[in-house]
Structures are given as structure tokens and as C-alpha cells.
Amino acid sequence: MGVRPGALVVVLGGCGFLGRALTRDLHHRGYRLRLITRRPDRHRDLLVLPRLELWEGDVHDEDFLRKAASGAAALVNLVGILTERVPGDFVRVHEELPARMARAGRGLRLVHVSVAGADAASASAYLRSKARGERLLRESAPDAVVVRPSVLYGPGDSFVGRFQRLLRWAPLGLPVPLAESLIAPVHVDDAACGLAAALARTGAAGHDYGFCGPEVLPLGQAVAAIARRSGRPPPWGLSAGVSLWLARLLGHWPGAPFSVDQWHTLRAGSVCPPGGPGLGDLGVTPRSFEEALKDLIPGPALTHGRPRRTEGQASRLTHP
Ligand SMILES: NC(=O)c1ccc[n+]([C@@H]2O[C@H](COP(=O)([O-])OP(=O)(O)OC[C@H]3O[C@@H](n4cnc5c(N)ncnc54)[C@H](OP(=O)(O)O)[C@@H]3O)[C@@H](O)[C@H]2O)c1
Hints:
By secondary structure, the protein is α/β, with parallel strands linked by helices. The protein is 37% helix and 16% strand. It has 2 domains: 8-156 and 184-211, NAD(P)-binding Rossmann-like Domain (Rossmann fold), CATH 3.40.50.720; 160-181 and 215-269 and 287-314. The two termini are 39 Å apart.
């Protein structure tokens, strides 16, 4: 059965980037929400929503998870990491947690967010762990809905926002690693809308959905669109070999801004299989990346201080 407005939905990782968009969407539709976080003090702003509870707890503790799921109609898992702080984090977060979710949420509508390109045979430990997590979830909960988004963007993201910041430090154009890798950026509000539909639709049970935007484009082209909109010089692509060398270097920096595993992840690309179930099957028409950039980076787009035309350039952001 799908979950109707008024029901309680528990969201693990609900205070993150996608979680906040989903919270806004579900609350607007009339759902009650229980968000699980390790640091509720950082997310008190969300308490202005009248039908929202903020629970502090450890999602890796199965007893806690069972308690958190009590009285709920659905459990959504948005917990994910891009890099491991300590070895074993990918297994704990991406593999053990979905399995635990399946046990603790038995009988509830389960919605699990993985990633486009999840692959048990990938050279990327991130993509391997995401694929194994999907399998472990499915073994115990065949009716769970699995969602695989490509790169998410929107206000406050770590994609458009991060490249905008980096572009400011690159007066001669930003070097972009693996600029040829394909992505299909999807707006976070469209992804949230798709998740809401995955909760509500009875027929979504047991299905996997790719959440991708309408344009499949090389990373370098996406960054070029951000640069144009921000009035910065165009970026330039780094070869796979130079990018790997950079990853080896930056992987040792504090916070590892770009690691070898991320190099493997990026190299694999992040697109949805053509013709596979996606946002359209959930009644959502994802917006265009270039169009959305106009809202994200407002004001007249400038090229080196001069107003520029956008019409001609928009055509570069279409399917390759
Ligand atoms: N962002 C993207 O471009 C993108 C693309 C494809 C797939 N995804 C997937 O979509 C999901 C949501 O992504 P997002 O961008 O919203 O991520 P996010 O902003 O980093 O939020 C993820 C949340 O997970 C929780 N979390 C992280 N590490 C944890 C740990 N070790 N133990 C317990 N909780 C932990 C955090 O919650 P607290 O700090 O509040 O406890 C955090 O708010 C993830 O599964 C991600 O892999 C994201």
C-alpha cells in the first residue's frame, strides 16, 4: 500500500541536502515527519514546521531504529557518504544500514536512496558499497523502493555552489578532472517530488527508479555552463592520467577534497540506463539544468564583465 498524507514518515539522514528538500515537500503535502539526526542542535530551524519531530540517535543501533520506526507508515533512508573517514565506513553506512533498515522497518513502506551507477563490480568502493547495500536491502525487503539519483543540485548544494566557489579562484579557467565523464544533473526538488511519489504510489513497491535530469552531459560542459552564468572564464579539462595524479595528491589533504576512489566514481559516470524506470514513471518531469541555473545564479550573466547572450549557448546542453 502507498502511504497517504497524515501518515508518519521517518527519514534517516533527513537533515541533509536531499532530506531538507524532501521534508519541505512531504510536510507541504500533509505528512507527519520524524527526522533522525546525530546533531539536532544544528537543525532547530526545521522545528518551525508543526508536524515535524527531530530525534537524536544512532541509526546504526538497531534497537534505536526500531523505536524510531514505531508508529510510522514509512521509513526513508537518505544516509550516505562520499568518502570514508575510517576504513569500513562504506560497509557500515551503505551496506549494513540498508540491511538494518529492512529488519527494523518490516511491514512499512521502505524507500532507500542509492546512486546512479551503483555497481557491485565497480573499481569504486563507493559504487560497490551502494550496489551491495541495494542487494542486502532487497534480500530482506523485496517490496522496498530503490532510488538511484545522478548528481543532485539546487540551492545550498555541493555541486553548483562548490564549482562557483572554485571558479572564483581560477582567473585563467578552472581545471576540471575527468571533464568527459557523463552526468545527468537532477534538481533536488524534482528528486524530492519523485521520492514523495515513491512513497504514495502502491505500484512503486519493489521497483528501482533512476532519478536523472533531462540532459546527459559531460562534467566539463556542466561546469562551463556554471562558469558562463557566473561570468567566469571557461574551464578546461584534465586528462584521466593527470586527474588521477591530482586525486593521489588531494586524497592526502585534510578532508580529502578529491580522492582516488572519487576518481573511479567520477570515471564511471552517473547516468540512468536509457529506457529504465525513472522520474517520468512517477509523474515528475525534471527541469532543465541550464534553465535552473538561471534561478540558482541570478542576475545578468556576464562574460568578463560584459553581458552575454544565452540562447546560442543553451543548445550546447543537450543530449550528446
Ligand atoms: N548529493 C548528491 O549529488 C547525491 C547523488 C546521488 C546519490 N546521493 C545519495 O543521496 C543520499 C542523500 O544525499 P545528500 O546529498 O542529502 O547527503 P548529505 O547532505 O550528506 O546528507 C546525508 C545525511 O546522512 C547522515 N550521515 C552521514 N554520515 C553518517 C553516518 N556515518 N552515520 C549516520 N548518519 C550519517 C547525515 O545526517 P546527520 O549529520 O544529520 O546525522 C547527513 O545529513 C545519500 O545516500 C547519497 O549517497 C546523493
